[in-house]
Amino acid sequence: MKRILLILVFAICGMFNNLSYAQEAPADTTQTDGFFNLYAGIYNLSTQFSDPAVTRMALYHLLMVAPNKTGILDSLALNYYDNQKWISVALVTKENLKINPDNELALELSAVSYENLGIKDQALAQYETLFLKNDNTTTLYRVAFLQFELKRYKESLASTEILLNRSDIAEQKLYFPKADKTQQQVTMKAALLNLKGLIAKSEGDVAKAKELYLEALKDSPGFEVAQKNLSDAGK
Predict the structure, then answer these.
(1) Following DSSP, what letter does each residue of 182-209 receive, concatenated?
(2) Residue 170 DSSP one-character state
(3) Is 152-235 in the same CATH topology as 1-134?
(4) I need a labelling partner for 173 at 20 to 30 A (CA). Which of 98, 126, 139, 191 fits?
(5) CB distance 81 to 112 below 8 Å
(6) What's the CATH superfamily of 1-134?
(7) Ranges of each domain in the chain
(8) Tens-binned pLDDT, residue by residue, of the chain (235 aa)
(9) C-alpha 224 chain-centroid distance
(10) d(Cα 53, Cα 63) in Å, to the nearest integer?
(11) CB-based contacts of 105: which residues, under 8 Å, 6+ apart?
(12) Third-level CATH fold of 152-235
C-alpha cells in the first residue's frame, strides 16, 4: 500500500508543478486564473518546505476556485492519509468517488480509512470494488483478511485459495508486527497459510490450524505471528 501510494504521491505532486488554470479555462476568467496560479504556487512551496497544514489549506483554496477537480481531491486525501486523519480521508474520498467512481486511488484510500476507523464492512466493499478494477494480489489479500475478520469464513477461504494459485505471490511480501513493536517482512504465501490456519481454528479444526501454521513457519522461518498462533492453538 505505501509503495503504491508513494508512486501516486509523486505523480499527483507533478500535476501541480507549473500548474496554470488558464490552460483549461476560458479567456475571460483572468481573475480566476490568477487565484488558481497563486494557490498552486503556495501548494508547491509548502510541499517543498514540508508544511502539510499549509499544503492542505492551499488545496482547499484550489477547490474553491476549481471545484470537482479529482486530482486536487486526491492530493487532499493523501495529505490526510499521511497525517492519519481517517475521518477526513473517508469524507474526501467519498466526495471524490461521487465525481469519478472509477478512481482507484480514491477507492484504496477510502478502504484504508474505513479499515482504520473499524468500519470493516465498508472497507471490504471498497476493496472488493477496487479488486474488480485492478486485479491486484495485495488488494485481494485485504479482501480475504477482512472477510475473515467479518467471520465470512467460506468467502475468506475461497479468496485465499485463489491467491495461492496466483503466479505472482512468490514476488509479494507483507509486513507483520513483532513483539518488540518493529515490523517483520514475510512471504505472501506464509501470510496466506497463516490466514488459512486462522480460518481452520475459527471453524473448530485445531489440528488443521496447527498444520497450516507450521507450513507458514516453514515458508518464512521466524514468522512471529504464526509462531504465536501455533502456541495459542496448543492451549
Answers:
(1) -EEEEEHHHHHHHHHHHHHHHTT-HHHH
(2) G
(3) yes
(4) 126
(5) yes
(6) Tetratricopeptide repeat domain (1.25.40.10)
(7) 1-134, 152-235
(8) 544 444 344 444 444 443 433 334 444 456 677 778 888 888 888 889 999 999 999 999 999 988 889 999 999 999 999 999 999 999 999 999 999 999 999 999 999 999 999 999 999 999 999 999 999 999 999 999 999 999 999 999 999 999 999 999 989 999 999 999 999 999 999 999 999 999 999 999 999 999 999 999 999 999 999 999 999 998 6
(9) 24
(10) 16
(11) 5, 8, 74, 77, 78
(12) 1.25.40
Please give the Cα distance from 114 to 96 (Å, whole number): 15
Q: H or E stretch including 48?
A: helix 30-48
**Is residue 7 packed enough to be buried (19+ CB in 10 Å), middle (13-18) or exposed (0-12)?**
exposed
